[in-house]
Amino acid sequence: MAGESQTSDHNQRRWHHIKKLLERSGPFCHPDFEPSPDILDFIMNSCKVLVVGAGGLGCELLKDLALMGFKKIHVIDLDTIELSNLNRQFLFRKNDIGLSKAKCAVDFVNKRVPGCEAVAHHCAIQDFDEGFYRQFHIVVCGLDSIVARRWLNGMLMSLLQYNDDGSLDQSSIIPLVDGGTEGFKGNARVILPGLSACIECTLDLYPPQKTYPLCTVANTPRLPEHCVEYVKVIQWAKENPWGNSVQLDGDDPHHLAWVLERAQERANKHGITGVTYRLTQGVLKNIIPAVASTNAAIAAVCATEVFKLATSSCANMNNYMIMNMADGVYTYTFNAEKRSDCLACSNVTRVMEIEPEATLQAIYNKLCDDQDYMMKSPGITTIINGRNKTLYMASVKSIEERTRDNLKKKVTELGLYNGADILVADITTPNTLTIKLKFSELEDIEMTH
Amino acid sequence: MASPSPKSPEQSEKNKQYDRQLRLWGDHGQTALENGHICLINATALGTETLKSIVLPGVGAITIVDDSTVTDEDIGSNFFLECSSVGINRGSEALRLILELNSAVQGHSVQESTDQILLENPDFFKAFSVVIATALGEKTIQELSQHLWDINVPFILCRSVGFLGSFRIQLKEHAVVESHPDNEQPDLRLDMPFPALKSFLDNFDLDVVELKDHGHIPWIVIIYKAIEKWRLKNNNQWPMSTKEKNEIREIIRDFIRKDENGIPINEENFAETLRAVNTALVPTFLPVKIQKLIYNSAAINLTNESSPFWIMCSALRNFVETEGKGKLPVCGALPDMTASTDHYIQLQNIYRNQAAIDAEAIYRKVQQITAQLHCETISETEVKLFCRHAHNLYLIKGSCIAQEYRLESSVASYIARYLEEPNVMMVHYILLRAAERFLSEHCRAPGDWEPEGDISKLKSCVSKLLSDISCSPFPKDDHVHEMCRYGGAEIHSVSAFMGGCIAHEAIKIVTKQYIPVNNTFIHDSASTNSAVFTF
Amino acid sequence: MIKLFSLKQKKDEEGSSRPGGTQKKASAAQLRITKDLNELNLPKTCGTEFPDPDDLLNFKLIICPDEGFYRGGRFVFSFKVGPNYPHEPPKVKCETAVYHPNIDLEGNVCLNILREDWKPVLTVNSIVYGLQYLFLEPNPEDPLNKEAADELQSNRRLFEQHVQRAMRGGYVGSSYFERCLK
């Protein structure tokens, strides 16, 4: 058999399309772009991409990236496959219902695209620590949860390293490409942590969850949604149909049937029409409509941006694209602005030098008196062994009483160490500050005396 | 009133599978999709990505026409081919792998060239709801588009080259009843209340309402009372100007109850009323685009070939001219507003009943027309839906691609106008056309082997096109260089994006819901920019 | 433009850690609630209780009105601040059974900023003031306990008597109320 050389020929031809973009220069390329076969080698053999979510967007992303040459792809998803996923999550079949989305998706793509070495993680994003996330060059996310996006955003911000002169160490930046869809609408964006607008900067672009006034729900319902909400918020807790400890579960068909029946009773009583199975389920589970085509388009935009980031073959979008496919097909790209008071990306860690023997009171005094801080009544907390710890807070009486003794303690007695972060909130700053403690060396102190 | 609630409301398997999309186009949209048959010409990555998003939601059937065999390059960009597919017919391999996505979809593969089918069996295309084609030559594009135009089959022509993608929809005539506008103007008739509404509003006395109910008076009532009060002092005129609207706002503020210290009590319904002043004072009128529709010759000169849409338009015209007194039927939807349950439900029923009465009148007219024409009857459900959406009917009158390709004078001046702007997306259009011309002249994509040598040849294709539309040559060659750099490469993510969009448009055409692109969409993934042109 | 390809040919392998880089970072919700609480400016009728002073996400608010129908009572509210704070409001429940037009017997509270009118610029302080206001000015127009609301409107004296009875501990209609006088 002519074995290897033939396989290599096949491979050369397989990536023929992409190689044209990577091995040829063009008038619109970034000036720093140098066409070379090494770029394909980089995306195939070095570049590690994390895909967060293996649902509507995640399945598409995984396929798109595998066919753009990426091999070292990791996928995280906590969910298992449901029947209602199959209208768009095209890597799954009816036989797969109940299995891990991440595993099924990875198995399928690795089989279909030879050479692809995708790895599945059937768990929550919070199950991994910084060490895990730091291994990736790019993170791309297709999630429907704002909480998860914010968590991931915070994680990537915490991986940023700063040089001694306070400038950002660019090699610590892990770009985040984020996509989202709702029905016929979607958005895609590129976030360079520390450099461009992050998830937290633009939190108000996410529509608030649909809620109904409780008094309307309780007393003056007029929409079918009000009837379902009544059963969900008020009647369930009153009647506890499955016993006190059983929470309402929108996925349990018996629960759903119970809610539907009660909601219909309430609707009939008030002459309200339109309480159907579909509507009830939609309100209970806060279902967002989804269709294959929108997911395909948005995921593809994200994959293109990942490709641009990894190869520099073209400048990235700057930096937020919205898309509406309800009336024609409309896209609009704009520059979402980084907020100087952002909780996540403008929370640049400051360094405070203290003596290793210092007490918390010394830090407190420094925060109040030091020219750099001039705080009025700083509240100080930290995280030790993954747990939040309140060190001192004067504004809340009950906490003040129980943390007052901490002031006398040495920082080391409180579990703090050289390099530990403390969080300081004060009326004088728009946000809680992160301050890294740096122990001064004893000799230095002696020398200054 | 009380109806027995179903004891076992479990959905069918199919409803569960399609739940997330049924919330967008409804059960009737799904039925329409399941009756659709899509033909794909050429199973390129762009082609299969398009089919994927049509098969997943459950189209009735697909047919792939492709006479080429699978190459290694195909495998590299096309997810619906396997390594073992190399050397086998591309259409049949793609079909096999795409059908795995949804067992409810029927599939066929035809291993012939489009030219051959056009020559030997042109009626073949009559079976399809939409024909989608990729990677066709200039000549075939013109012949196929002309044929599909003649037999009135919707056609979508698609391209994916480098970072560029485009699609062109060819529809002779496409009527959309459910256009799903984002912001629907409420149809409240406060300026000309029908009897039931007038009696409800007139019998409502703001002054006798108890305080606790005062906060639950629907804003429709409040605004009506304010207008009535204003009209008494203003010769029964209708408030139109900004000044007059402000006077209405003042009257509304006067209605707000005050506490013992004379401070207005904050009531949500009054805040809603003040916000509604602008929209609620718009007089009821017949929108121009609907007027054009119902007086369109197709609605006037009916034959037994007329589509249900035009028959209903004709009935609608008759209604407008008689019972409707110049207005459309009441749409029957009441916007959500703060209100007591009783008042809201009463109002809702008043509007719904009037809508039902109007729709019934139109249905009778439709029945008369179909009887006279001896054509197929139209169901009451369909007429009701038509009446419900009569304010937002939408009609696309398309143009033929072959005509666009001939660059007739209207097309030429349209393009020239954009090039003068200058509009970079129209430059992309010219380059895509020029690359197609290059392919037909040189039997390869520009830059396929190496970019430099083809630059001057592609440039001459561009110049030829520009001279055909009497435009001066481009001052710079950068886009020509870029096109040669692409060398006809099909980039998967670009095809995946375009595939999603094209599938979406095909579904709109098949379900007759939502408004399709009219008629050309061009996307540049390099700049994340897109544009729509109407040739 | 950031040049990933040239910047990072090789990434750290999984699990590698940098000195001082292992401390868990505070979430945006945590940073924000710390700020909210540090700036908490309670009216004199209100107090907070933190069962665990290290857990700033779960706490109780105690309101002891010094005027109005509910003077002399002591009402406990539980606050649960979720990971999506301040995109979503905290979950607030009244743990003291109270005869009140806007609080039902399950402890649900009808206060607009706790649901439909919540905005991320609002703080824990805004909610505290909103709750305090509910005791000073019960709002019968948007009731959760309709019986109480109707009574407040039709017969203030009777309503006041019932509030007093409920606070002393006893039945109002068929509902029993635990004593909650200070």
From TrEMBL, chain A:
Biological process (GO), any one: protein neddylation
Catalyzed reaction equations: ATP + [NEDD8 protein] + [E1 NEDD8-activating enzyme]-L-cysteine = AMP + diphosphate + [E1 NEDD8-activating enzyme]-S-[NEDD8 protein]-yl-L-cysteine
Enzyme class: ligase
Annotated pathway: Protein modification; protein neddylation
PROSITE patterns: UBIQUITIN_ACTIVAT_2
SMART domains recorded: E2_bind (SM01181)
E2 binding domain ranges (all copies): 352-440
Coiled coil (residue ranges): none
Function: Catalytic subunit of the dimeric E1 enzyme, which activates NEDD8.
Name of the protein this chain belongs to: NEDD8-activating enzyme E1 catalytic subunit
Biological source species: Eumeta variegata (Bagworm moth)
Classification of source organism: Eukaryota, Metazoa, Ecdysozoa, Arthropoda, Hexapoda
UniProt gene name: uba3
From TrEMBL, chain B:
Gene3D superfamilies given in the database record: NAD(P)-binding Rossmann-like Domain
GO cellular component: cytoplasm
THIF-type NAD/FAD binding fold domain segment(s): 18-522
InterPro entries the record matches: APP-BP1 (IPR030667), ThiF/MoeB/HesA (IPR045886), ThiF_NAD_FAD-bd (IPR000594), Ubiquitin-activating_enz (IPR035985)
GO BP: protein neddylation
Pathway as given in its UniProt record: Protein modification; protein neddylation
Matching Pfam families: ThiF
Swiss-Prot/TrEMBL keywords: Ubl conjugation pathway
PANTHER family found in the cross-reference section: NEDD8-ACTIVATING ENZYME E1 REGULATORY SUBUNIT (PTHR10953:SF29), UBIQUITIN-ACTIVATING ENZYME E1 (PTHR10953)
Membership in a protein family: Belongs to the ubiquitin-activating E1 family. ULA1 subfamily.
Protein name: NEDD8-activating enzyme E1 regulatory subunit
Organism of provenance: Eumeta variegata
Source species taxonomy: Eukaryota, Metazoa, Ecdysozoa, Arthropoda, Hexapoda
UniProtKB/TrEMBL annotation, chain C:
EC number: 2.3.2.34
All copies of domain UBC core, residue ranges: 28-172
Pfam family, one: UQ_con
GO molecular function: ATP binding; NEDD8 conjugating enzyme activity
Record-linked InterPro entries: Ub_conjugating_enzyme, UBC, UBQ-conjugating_AS, UBQ-conjugating_enzyme/RWD
Catalytic activity: [E1 NEDD8-activating enzyme]-S-[NEDD8 protein]-yl-L-cysteine + [E2 NEDD8-conjugating enzyme]-L-cysteine = [E1 NEDD8-activating enzyme]-L-cysteine + [E2 NEDD8-conjugating enzyme]-S-[NEDD8-protein]-yl-L-cysteine
The keyword Nucleus is annotated on this UniProt entry: no
Chain residue ranges for the region called Disordered: 1-28
Keyword Disulfide bond listed: no
Class of this enzyme: transferase
Family that this chain belongs to: Belongs to the ubiquitin-conjugating enzyme family.
Protein name: E2 NEDD8-conjugating enzyme
Active site location: C110
Native source species: Eumeta variegata (Bagworm moth)
Alphabetical UniProt keywords: ATP-binding, Nucleotide-binding, Transferase, Ubl conjugation pathway
Pathway assigned in UniProt: Protein modification; protein neddylation
